[in-house]
Amino acid sequence: MAKMIVDLRSDTVTLPTPEMRQAMLNAEVGDDVYHDDPTINKLEALAAERMGKEAAVYVASGCQGNASAVIAHTQLKGAMVVERRAHINTTEKPCMERLVRVKAIVIDEPSGILDPDVVDRTVAGARAGGDDVRLLCLENTHNLAGGIPVPVPRMAALKAVADKHGLKVHLDGARVFNAATALKVDVKDIVRHVDSVMFCVSKGLSAPVGSLVAGTKEFVKEARIARQMLGGQMRQAGVIAAAGIVALTEMPQRLQADHDNARLLAEAMARMPGLRVDLDRVRSNIIFARADSPEMADRLVALAEAEGVKFRAFGGGMMRLVTNKEVTREGTLHAVDVIGKAMKSIVGRTAVG
What we know:
The chain is of the alpha/beta class. Helices cover 46% and strands 17% of the residues.
């Protein structure tokens, strides 16, 4: 019997559905640089409507989308305020520093949910020190804070502070549909409090590639120029945009299953000796678990992978597990079993040693 594979490394491992593959096969295409690709045009219109914005532009990746948005808002000048562990300031930091060249003014907020008063003081202090602060960047859900959703009232309060200082607000909403699912609101309720948003049609929505950036028509015009600067002229990309249309129309409603599986797995891991999970922070499809030592975490990852259950060690004993479309309830229970047996082996060996 083939070994069951449960891939919890990220929701980027999701595979396109049969409907997506068929849509890609049948997609009408044209040259998107001339706005002649009808499938891309349809996806962009659909994305703008779902976000409650005037327009949207299709981009190759979330990194390209965030960079295009930052360039459009700042015109490659000044500074932006961002939480320390935000994706824009971690994985995407080389792009922001070397290509966009907009200074990051960092706020360290362990919860991942910025405090409006702290943002207010940070912007005022930075400007007093000579920084030309132009932009506030938010992330919802906040990946490295545990996939935590930022509540709508907090989004509104942060927008009010930004307006006070004349800042634009950009949302890295790579998983904004997960945030809407966790908060039980329409995604528009979140996004109405930002000037622009980037969201992925890959990850939990399961398209094979691509993200959208949405905002006003004037902003999107500038974002298209930035996309071109970043090498994003994709020509007949309707063949992949077609999957994005299916992702937007059919996949948001299935995200609750990922959240339920994450909760099941997190609660089981929280009961295992040698592991700690803050269940109050497991609100979407992302789990952070800490082992008693870095060596224990590395050992657990290796033992689990040998049994087909894949997830990542982040250093310092921290591990991340992300539920996704490819992980069924059966797969989740299998992961619980594999991780539980591995931890018993590790803790027993540690006790003996």
